[in-house]
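Thanks for the sequence, V.! I ran ALA-interacting subunit right away. Repeating your input here for the record:
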Amino acid sequence: MPGSDSTAHKSKSRRPKYSQFSQQELPAFKLILTPGYVISTFIVVGLIFVPIGLISLFASETVVEIVDRYDNECIPKDFRDNRVEFIKNKQTNKSCTRTFTVPKQMKSPIFIYYQLENFYQNHRRYVKSRSDKQLQSKKNAAHIRECKPMGETDNKDPIIPCGLIAWSLFNDTYGFSVKGKDLKVNKRDIAWGSDKNYKFGADVFPKNFQVGDVGGKSLNSSIPLSEQEDLIVWMRTAALSTFRKLYGKIEDDLQANDVITVVIENNYNTYDFKGTKSLVLSTTSWIGGKNDFLGVTFITIGGICLFLAITFILLYVIKPR
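Predicted structure:
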């Protein structure tokens, strides 16, 4: 029957239910870039970015920073032509004394960093040579599959902590004094709290570490890894080949023209791969350490926006549409 055919056709229809959304009839807004709107946008961005850049530069300039490269100066003249032999020879005296003058008052805390160059902590094999499970819990002591070639001793005993990262732990030391008075270096709270609490277990103790082929600093086997902050700082690998890592803090103010004497134990071998070592003393500001890049970037972008705004104003006045 004709009526039944019409009913069946309606029930099988795939037409969607009518709505403004399905029919693309919703209200829409299309921005029209008029000269006034474009010029106003450039002016606003310029007026915001330039002051931010100036404030950032001023904050960076208030930071006092001393950088002293010592890897060349701490090699005796007799070994200048064979530095690798000097650093690997256990009989040579590695002590070295450096002095430098404080340019401006440095208020505490004064952060001590060591800076390495041409050291690729981001190398794939190096980054993967660690066992996070082993670092977190003593029940995973034998979890060393990822740590080769520094996973176990010749006797097949697991090394804790294992891997190339831990094995190459930085082992230069610094002692500071001013006017004959020793400056105490605080090495507490130099690592991230999240690393200490979650990545390094309080029940994991060093074992068989730096036995045989010694790569870097040794660890106290009676102190758990969660309290070995030098190790924790080192294990957070750097993204670039030049990097700084926190060594400690001086919690005394230093006055302008104070002469700092530093006794360095030059133990770490960067000579094999033509790397460099520097000691850095730095204060901080609300924006962090010394870094002019952020301020210069804001000023540059703000200046370009203001320049474009002025250019468009002149074009609009001289030759309007």
